[in-house]
Amino acid sequence: MVQAQPDSDASPPVQETPPVVLHLRPAIELTEDQFFALCQQNRDVRIERTAEGDIIVMPPTGWRTGVQNAGLIARLRLWAEQDRSGIAVDSSTGFRLPNGATRSPDAAWVRRARLAAVTSEQKEKFLPLCPDFVIELRSPSDPLAAVQEKMHEYIANGAQLGWLIDPLEHQVYVYRPGGPVQRLDNPAQLSGEPLLPGFALDLAPIWDADV
């Protein structure tokens, strides 16, 4: 029996470009204003900074990841506008955490009561606090351990709830302060209770994002 041969012109699956890490210290020490200016001058990429001062440059995501993330922020934003107790933002928003890191979660929510303590000038730059709620969506280029480490960092710096959504494995990791990480296998829905009363995220569009 003759076996079918693979198409010699077929291209391998396209993978998203992994982040680039730049180690600056001790050669270079960027101030908060300098780092903010660097990010503004490179708007085509998302830039984060670790607590150790390393710069992480993340290129634009692939199409499927972009669609998935747009759905996440749309649902969170709609709930936040109805609830009115906090503000939801997307992945272009930077947060300067208490440990000195600057992070940009894929989606985040902050209580209005905490925002009241932030000056108008501070709101023009990276917000000097950790969000109350964060979502990270694992993309094909993200090592799982690296995203998990970031989630632990959010919780250690004040986040009250975190969701790490892994479309590659159809798993969700739920993070809360003072408790173990909960892994959910192929859940249909996530509930934000009690922190986000009434917020439920349908995961079918994430698991079945064939667009």
CATH superfamily of the domain at 62-207: tt1808, chain A
Structural class: alpha+beta
Helix content: 10-25%
Which residues form runs of ≥5 with pLDDT under 50?
1-14
* pLDDT averaged over residues: 91
Q: In what order do the strands lie side by side in the largest sheet?
A: 4-7-8-9-10-11
Helical stretch tally = 5
Oligomeric description of these chains: single chain
Rg over CA atoms, rounded to whole Å, is 19 Å
The dominant shape is: globular
Order of helices and strands: EHEEHEEEEHEHEEEEEH
Number of strands: 13
What CATH calls the topology of the domain at 62-207 is tt1808, chain A
Distance between the termini: 37 Å
- CATH class categorisation of the domain at 62-207: Alpha Beta
Instruction: Report the sheet-strand fraction.
Output: 15-25%
CATH level-two architecture of the domain at 62-207: Alpha-Beta Complex
- What characterizes the major β-sheet? 6 strands, mixed
